[in-house]
Amino acid sequence: MIQVVIVEDDRDFIYLIRTLLEREKDIEVIGSCTEEICGTLPDMFSRADLVIVDLNLSNGREGQEEGIRMARKIRSTTDAKILILTGYEEPEIILQASQRAFASGYLLKKNYQGLSFMIRSIAAGSAPEEIYICSALLRKLSHAERFVLMEYLGYEVKINSSSKTKSNQMSSIVQKFELDKPSDLRMIFKNYPDLSRLSDDLR
């Protein structure tokens, strides 16, 4: 059973999504909340396999930023994956937001009927968008930084750099991803595809 939480400020849309997903035998909505009360329900997120986050929790650019901040917090503190739900249709805005939110997928609100399929794809680790987002994140890093990241995450890689150089590169990685500490990287990348499988795409 895929356990899902919905974060959306439009209560009517929450009802619409709940009604859609309740028809599915392998998907369970274990909770939903608006921006105002989500911060008081951390246990709900820790039990979720996937959290659907409205990119525009309130009107305008400020709302977009709040959606991203919420998604980042969920990803750095829980095992839940993020699915961005958005009314934006500009591909560049959606991709940039998905990277900053460390999302595993995105779906336009007007295409909400495809939500069940998207949830299953993300849960199975077979969503093309997840690979696309992860690859885009890694392209922010230099070749050396990618290998330092992979070593930190437990991959077997050969690095000839000194400890000091690796430490400096790790600091650069944390800064590029706008994180607070290196340990956040473990939570963020543990649910992304095997990074060694993406190596050909990153050369």
Model description:
This protein has 203 residues and is of the alpha/beta class. The protein folds into two domains: 2-126, Rossmann fold (3-Layer(aba) Sandwich), CATH 3.40.50; 136-202, no CATH class. The protein is 49% helix and 14% strand. It has helices at residues 11-21, 35-38, 42-46, 60-77, 91-100, 115-124, 128-138, 143-152, 163-176, 183-189; strands at residues 2-7, 27-33, 50-54, 81-86, 105-108. Strand 3, helix 4 (60-77) and strand 4 form a beta-alpha-beta unit.
Silhouette: elongated
- How is the main sheet built? 5 strands, parallel
**How large is the count of helical segments?**
10
Extended strand count: 5
Secondary structure layout:
Layout: E1 2-7, H1 11-21, E2 27-33, H2 35-38, H3 42-46, E3 50-54, H4 60-77, E4 81-86, H5 91-100, E5 105-108, H6 115-124, H7 128-138, H8 143-152, H9 163-176, H10 183-189
Parallel strand pairs: 1-2, 1-3, 3-4, 4-5
Quick structural summary:
The chain is of the alpha/beta class and 203 residues long.
